[in-house]
Design goal:
Elements (H helix, E strand, L loop, with lengths): L28 H8 L3 E6 L12 E6 L5 H9 L17 E6 L7 E5 L10 H17 L3 E8 L7 H15 L3 E6 L7 H14 L4 E4 L8 H12 L1 H9 L4
Parallel strand pairs: 2-4, 2-5, 5-6, 6-7
Antiparallel strand pairs: 1-3, 3-4
């Protein structure tokens, strides 16, 4: 599948209905962060056929080069070098998987997809990787959530909108979606409020959170949300009043 640019005001024109949806399970940020801290390298793959078939929830992190994706992953997992930040953004074009779970039992996986949009990457490499990324987002069966990194000082780029257009059908079918506004510490409080409001309109059907690794902003909220999405059985048990 080849990604082609499109102009869209709100990527998800018909967001999935939440009517009758159960409440999220009760979990503390300490529990969620402790779970994320268990992250360890699982495998890396240059193409989809090299990814292992998994039956646990997978959460993909995507975003434009220099949007702060590696910093965000390392901050959430409390590991300084789990996600590799290349000195040449856009050069690393592999999908990296990290296993999550306590006592050696994997209950979810984080997928770190290479940053896109870096000008120095040859055009043919850009096209090849766009195809790989699109195929992953559309066909990965155990993909349960997508986390998009966005620098609020620049807003959504054309490539961000293209990506949102690609995943829109899956989001409408129930795939979880989160936009993380990174580097929020570089904005004033008023600018943060404005950026948050604008992004909520643009990411119809998805969650939006301000995030700053420097100021420790949004870490607890994002960690808790990811834990909830990775443990749907616990969510169902919590809302039904039955034991897990």
């Amino acid at each position: 599948m080849t990604i082609s640019p499109s102009s869209i005001a709100t990527p998800f024109a018909n967001p999935p209905s939440t009517a009758g949806a159960g409440l999220a399970p009760v979990v503390t940020p300490v529990v969620a962060l402790g779970w994320l801290h268990t992250a360890k390298f699982l495998t890396t793959a240059p193409q989809l056929q090299f990814l292992p078939a998994l039956d646990v929830p997978e959460i993909a992190f995507v975003g434009r080069s220099n949007a702060g994706k590696s910093t965000c992953i390392n901050t959430l997992t409390q590991q300084k070098q789990l996600a590799f930040a290349s000195k040449k953004p856009g050069r690393t074009q592999h999908i990296n998987l990290f296993a999550l779970g306590k006592q050696g039992v994997t209950d979810a996986v984080l997928a770190d997809l290479p940053g896109y949009g870096y000008a120095a990457v040859p055009k043919q490499d850009k096209i090849r990787w766009q195809q790989v990324m699109a195929n992953y987002l559309v066909t990965r069966e155990n993909l349960k959530a997508i986390v998009l990194m966005c620098d609020p000082r620049h807003g959504l780029t054309e490539l961000d909108e293209v990506l949102l257009d690609v995943v829109r059908p899956r989001v409408e079918e129930g795939l979880k979606f989160l936009v993380i506004l990174t580097k929020a510490d570089k904005l004033t409080r008023a600018e943060q409020t404005k950026a948050l409001a604008i992004m909520k309109l643009q990411a119809g059907g998805g969650e939006v959170r301000l995030f700053s690794a420097t100021k420790r902003q949004g870490i607890d909220e994002v960690a808790t949300l990811l834990w909830q999405w990775a443990h749907p059985a616990t969510a169902q048990a919590a809302t039904s009043g039955q034991p897990e």
